[in-house]
Design goal:
- The protein is an alpha/beta fold.
- Helices cover about 35% and strands about 25% of the residues.
- It has seven helices and seven strands.
- The protein has a seven-stranded mixed β-sheet, with helices on both faces.
- Strand 2, helix 4 and strand 3 form a beta-alpha-beta unit.
- The structure holds S-adenosylmethionine (SAM).
- S-adenosylmethionine binds next to strand 2.
Length: about 200
Amino acid sequence: MTDVWRHNSHYHRLLLKAMPPNCGSALDIGCGSGLLTRKIAERCPDVTGIDRSAEMIRQATETGGGAKYVQTDIHDWAEGPYDFVTSVAVIHHMDFETGLKAHADLVRPGGTLAVLGLARDDVPKDLPLALTGMACSFVLNWINNGSPRYPPEQPGMPMIMPELTWAQVRERTRKVLPGAVFRRHLLWRYSIIFTKAIE
Ligand SMILES: C[S@@+](CC[C@H](N)C(=O)[O-])C[C@H]1O[C@@H](n2cnc3c(N)ncnc32)[C@H](O)[C@@H]1O
């Protein structure tokens, strides 16, 4: 259940590539059952996963993998800063601008923020890319999971649909984090990579 191919895990490698060399500390915000958190812990000695869902923290802790897990809301988290801060499919659960700023505030100067997020299609403008994504998803799912059926989500995982469109997320990212690299990807995801300047 935890190691199946999904749209989020397809982009884990991209996020891990943004990890600073000799990363000493990392925070995975909205870690869920700890899928990415465990991968970060293979390369970084001090990794924390936080999530406001008690059930997700229970599942992550039960699976283990070298990270520590804490049940909390990002807006109440006062530890840090960290060399590497990540979140996957989380930021659309909060006000985007406040949430992105809260993510960036947890990054140490010289450290990196890597966000993977979801946005809403603005139809018909976004339809061609969405349909291309659907075809790619079908093929990749079959190759990686050996079935035409996309796997069900982790039981108990809090999920909501994104409200902001791709264009709105891009524009707000520019406003909150000038210099961040925003990229839209084919499997209904965007990434934001931001390295905080050393003052
Ligand atoms: C769709 S799940 C993604 C989980 C995980 N990142 C993954 O990729 O499997 C979104 C997670 O974000 C958590 N979350 C949402 N808002 C949060 C907040 N303000 N602070 C901490 N966690 C939050 C939810 O509890 C949920 O576990």
